[in-house]
Amino acid sequence: MVKATLHYYYDPLCGWCYGAAPLLAAAANLAGLAIELHGGAMMSGPNRQPVTPQLRQYVMGHDARIRQLTGQPFGDGYFNDLLLDSGAVFDSTPPTLAILAAEALGIDGLSMLHRLQQAHYVDGQRIAEPAVLQQLAIELGLDGAAFAAEYQRQQGEFAAHVGRSHRDMAAHGLRGFPRCCWN
Question: Do the beta carbons of residue 19 and residue 49 sit within 8 Å?
Answer without folding.
Answer: no
